[in-house]
Structure formats: structure tokens, C-alpha cells
Design brief:
With 227 residues, this protein is mainly α. It has 10 helices and no strands. This is TetR family transcriptional regulator.
Length: 227
């Protein structure tokens, strides 16, 4: 009887852990929460004051989970930076794609004012400003991250707008020998001054900003319209 009981016990399946591995959906939600928390802490505390311990605690995950996805804090910041860049570029990409696929309603000047306003609003949000400040403080320590932000952020914004300038060229609406140079010039005059003010917490009222934007667009278009 004892032998039979032992055999029966040996055949019985082992009890499974009630925790087990998370489902794919749960794992995705956990990873998103982890990146959300890390991004917020980087913005609030800066890179140096943000620790993996703090991120893990607030995200309700283990440090092992953090390190299994990101080699170190730099890798975590890079992931946060890449996601923010994608968020910044999305409205610009959508606006350019819509303009390429649909006829221009209204004047060319009105469209450039509209897209310029969108770019300014994205670039001057507290979220973007905080990330860019953190990046600027760490540029000397991580020059590769600074280059990533330039190439993946600014560079892609330029190339995205350049496609539209080529499109406008083909339609005879503008005359630009170098679409990329025209796109970068437009971004510089629209974003540059406002970015500098925002980085130094210098406020500018909506009316003044709109007047400056309209003037910048008018001057820009006067230089690229066909004679």
C-alpha cells in the first residue's frame, strides 16, 4: 500500500505558482508603466537624481525587471528619449502626410502658419522642455545621446518637411533648389527663438507669439515664392 501511495504521489503534477509569468498584455502594460515612471522622474529630478531604485519602486517592479530590459540608467533614459521624440514628430508627420494627399484649402501662408503653430506648441510644452534640459545637462557625458536627439529628432523633422517642400516645388507653389535647407531654415525661424525663451523660463504671451510667427512665415515665403 505504501509503495502504491508513493507511486501515486510521484505521478501527481507539481503545484504551480499562483503568480507565474505575466500574460503578454500584462507584461506590455508593465513595460509601459515602467517607461512612464522613468520619463516622469527624469523630467522632475533630472538624470543624476533619478535612481533605478526609485524607478522600480514607483513602477511597482523589481530592479531585476528594469535591468533585464535596460542595461543601465543611460539605456533607460535613451528609451524614454526615443519615445518622446516619436511623440514630438507624430503631429508633424501627420500634418505633412495630410497636405501631400489632399488639395490645399486656403492660402499657402495660412498652412505654414498652422503647421508652425503646431510645431511651436509641441516644442514648448513643459514635458519637452524638461527632457531637453535633462539632455543638455548630460550632453557632455553622453554625446551619443545628444547626437541621437539631433539626428532622430531635428534631423527627421527636417527630412519630413523637406518631402513637403519637394511636393510644393512640383506644384509650382514654391521655388527652392534645396528642399532640406529650406525645411531647416523654416524650423529655425519658427522654433529657434521660442525654444531659447522656453529653456530659460522666459514667458511670451500668445498674441506676441502669434504676431512673430506670422511675420516669420511671411518673410520666409517671400524668399521662396516663384517670381
Amino acid at each position: 500500500m505504501k509503495t502504491a501511495a508513493k507511486k501515486s504521489a510521484a505521478k501527481a503534477p507539481a503545484a504551480r505558482s499562483r503568480g507565474g509569468r505575466p500574460t503578454r498584455t500584462a507584461a506590455l502594460q508593465r513595460d509601459l508603466r515602467l517607461l512612464d515612471v522613468a520619463t516622469r522622474l527624469f523630467m522632475e529630478r533630472g538624470f543624476d537624481a533619478t535612481t533605478i531604485d526609485a524607478v522600480a519602486e514607483e513602477a511597482r517592479v523589481s530592479k531585476l525587471t528594469v535591468y533585464s530590459r535596460y542595461t543601465d540608467k543611460r539605456g533607460l533614459f535613451e528609451a524614454a528619449l526615443r519615445r518622446e521624440i516619436a511623440r514630438w514628430l507624430a503631429p508633424l508627420s501627420n500634418g505633412v502626410e495630410e497636405r501631400r494627399n489632399n488639395p490645399l484649402n486656403g492660402s499657402l501662408e495660412a498652412w505654414f502658419v498652422s503647421i508652425g503653430r503646431q510645431i511651436q506648441e509641441i516644442g514648448s510644452t513643459p514635458r519637452v522642455t524638461a527632457i531637453m534640459r535633462t539632455l543638455s545637462f548630460q550632453a557632455a557625458n553622453f554625446p551619443d545621446l545628444a547626437r541621437l536627439a539631433y539626428e532622430e529628432g531635428w534631423g527627421r523633422a527636417v527630412s519630413t518637411l523637406a518631402v513637403l517642400f519637394d511636393h510644393f516645388n512640383e506644384q509650382g507653389l514654391v521655388r527652392v533648389p534645396d528642399a532640406a535647407a529650406a525645411a531647416e531654415t523654416f524650423l529655425n525661424i519658427v522654433v529657434g527663438p521660442l525654444t531659447r525663451l522656453t529653456m530659460f523660463d522666459i514667458a511670451i504671451d500668445e498674441k506676441t507669439r502669434d504676431r512673430q510667427l506670422r511675420l516669420a512665415v511671411k518673410l520666409f515665403l517671400n524668399g521662396i515664392r516663384p517670381n
